[in-house]
């Protein structure tokens, strides 16, 4: 990566030119930059303002708030759907994908939580490699939200208990199943298969219940409701503050 900055002959602005091989060293997350050259013309005064505050422009802030409002409304049940697809890195290195329900979302902590069975494949994946990404599309608003971050199984007794207490009976019931998810019920010739656990698996529903918290390092907003689709990316991988990039859709 090379970065050149020069002041243009005419006009009071600077052109930032960034030649990109793979995004490494640019300070921008690799997935958002591929080979090529990007440049950015900025009035001198605007660079001074951004440098001084480190803050987001109002427009950008509106989209970041949009992402977190949406996640919060999924968690409190006021969104049309609370379903989000979570991708993990599987044992073979291929992506593992499934739907889960958003249970908690905190802009302040930059976390999103879901619950699952401690015996599930996604928990095994997360224990091996905590990197996850998540995506949700809302049909009504035609907005897609994409997240990336690292997942952790929450140990905190009070935090687990608080979420468990809020679960509806049918959600708690999922943890009463002795058979872990994804176990074959029939052999290839149609014979029902038996199941004997290894004795190490938890027996109580509450002990099978896992609360997983994703520490979000990047978030993306894509609105396809208008002709000019709007796409914003936000990231906070190196510092607690959010930084933004407007992307071509
Ligand atoms: C609408 C919907 C919501 C779901 N919510 C959850 C959830 O909150 N937690 C969960 O573990 N599985 C949930 N599931 C089931 C998962 O998608 C998945 O099949 C299961 O957890 C096994 O995933 P794994 O084998 O990849 O770990 C949901 C499925 C659907 C269709």
What does this protein structure show overall?
The protein is 22% helix and 37% strand. By secondary structure, it is of the alpha+beta class. The chain folds into two domains: 47 residues, no CATH class; 174 residues, Electron Transport, Fmn-binding Protein, Chain A (Pnp Oxidase, Chain A), CATH 2.30.110. The strands form two sheets. Strands 4, 5, 6, 7, 8, 9, 10, 11 and 12 form a nine-stranded antiparallel β-sheet that branches. It is elongated and about 70 Å long. Bound molecules: flavin mononucleotide. Flavin mononucleotide (FMN) binds next to strand 5, strand 7 and helix 3.
Describe the structure concisely.
With 249 residues, the chain is α+β, with helices and mostly antiparallel strands. Helices cover 22% and strands 37% of the residues. It folds into two domains: 1-47, no CATH class; 56-181 and 200-247, Roll (Pnp Oxidase, Chain A), CATH 2.30.110.10.
Quickly count the domains.
2
Bound molecules: flavin mononucleotide
How many helical stretches? Answer: 6
CATH topology of the largest domain: Pnp Oxidase, Chain A
> Distance N terminus to C terminus?
24 Å
What is the global morphology? elongated
Radius of gyration: 22 Å
Number of DSSP strand runs? 12
